[in-house]
Fold these 3 entries.
Entry 1:
Amino acid sequence: MTDCRRSLLKRQAEVLEAENELQNAKAEIGLYLRNDDGSPRLVETLEPKLETQALRKAKTFELDKRRLPQITSLQTQRDLQNAASEFGRNQRLPILEVDATQFQTLPRRGEPDTTRFQLGVFLEIPLENRSGRGKEKAALAKRDSVERQLIYLEAELKARLAQAAATMTASEKRLELLNEELKSANIVANAERRRWRSGDSNLFLVAAREEEAANVEIRLWSADYDFVIAEAEAKFLTNTLF
C-alpha cells in the first residue's frame, strides 16, 4: 500500500507539472494570436491529437532567399552602400558641361535682325578630393560589413535548418520504435494483470508493468513534441509557418 501510494503521488506530481507546462504553452501561443481589436487572444484549450503520433513524417524544407525578410533587408543595405560609394566616387571626378543658347529678337520696323548663338563650355575640377574619397571608403567598409553579415546569416540559417531536419528524421524513427515498444509494454502489462487475477502475481508487479508502459508513453509524447518543435522551427526559418 505504501509503495502504491508513492507511485500515485509521483504520477500526481507529474500531472501537475504537465498542467503547468500546458498553461505556459497557452500563454506563449496567445502572444502570437490576436483578436480583431489587436489584443492577445486567450487560448482556452489545447487538445492533443493522439492519432497523429503514427503519422509524423519528416519533410524537406528549402531556403528561399526571396521569402526571408532578414536576408532581403541586408541585401537592400548592401545596395544602398554600393550607391553611396558610387556617389562618393562621382564627387571626385571633374565636371564638364556644355551650354548652347540661341537668341532671336523681334526687330522693329527699320531695325536689323539681331539673332545670336552662344556656346559655353564649363570645366569644374574638384580640389578637395578627400571628402569624396572618405565617403567612398566609408561606404565600401559598410558594404563589406553588411556582406559578411549576409554570409554569416545564410550559413546560420542553413545550419539551423539542417539541425531541424535532423531532429525531425530522428524523432520520426524514435516514434516508430516507441510505438512498437508501447505495444509490447501494454501486452506485458495486460498479461501481468491476467496473472494477478489468476493468483499467479501480485499488485507490486502489476504496478511495475503499468509504470513501465506509462514511461514508454511519456517518451513517445516527448518524441512527438520534439518533432513538432523541429517542424515549426523549419517552417519559421523558411518563412512558411503560415
Entry 2:
Amino acid sequence: MAEVLTRKIANEYRDRARLLPPNGLQDIGDRRKLRIELQSRCNLTELEAVNIINGYHIGDYVVLAERRKREKEKREQEE
C-alpha cells in the first residue's frame, strides 16, 4: 500500500535529488531511479514525482495527496 505524500517525504526526495549531478534536470540515470522510487512509494504520476524531486509545487502536491486520502476514506465509509 502506498504512503500518503507528506512535506517530509517530498523534501527528502528533493534533497536527495540535489545531491545528484544536474544533467539539465533530465529524467535519466539516478534521477530517474529516484523519480520511480517516489512514484511507487506515494502512488504519484510521473509529472508529480518529477516536479517534486525538482522542488516545484511541493505544497500543492501535498495538499492534493491529503485530499485524495480524504476522498478515498469517504468512499470507503459510504460502502
Entry 3:
Amino acid sequence: MTITLKAHSVWQNVSQALEHIDPYEIARSHLIACDFEIQGYWDEDDRPYESIRFTTAPQPELISRSLGMNSSAASRWLQLKYELTITDSGSKESIGQLLLVLNEDLEVVDENWVIDLRSPYVVAVAE
C-alpha cells in the first residue's frame, strides 16, 4: 500500500489556516518594528556591517510560505519568504529578500536577510 499526501485533507486544513493570516501585515509590522534597519548584518563574503538602512521603505511581497515541525512535533513553525522591492518612478527594483520564521503564536522567532548592498536604496555602514 502506497501512502501519499496528494489528496489528503491536511492540505485543505493548511490552506484554510493560512487564509486567515495576512503575510503582508506580518512583514510590514516587522519592518516597522526594526525601524527599517538591520543591525549586525554579514554579507555573502562574511564581511560584517554595523547596520543596513533603506533610504525608502521597502515593500514586502510574499514569494513562498511553508510549515514545519520538529521530529517530535512538539514545536511547529511557519516560514514566510518575501522579496523586498522599491518602486521608484514607476519601475520596481528588488533590493533583497527577507525570511521570517514564526512560532505557533505568530511571533517572529528567527529572521534572515539577503540584501543587495549595491542598491542605491541601501545604506550599509561597515564595522
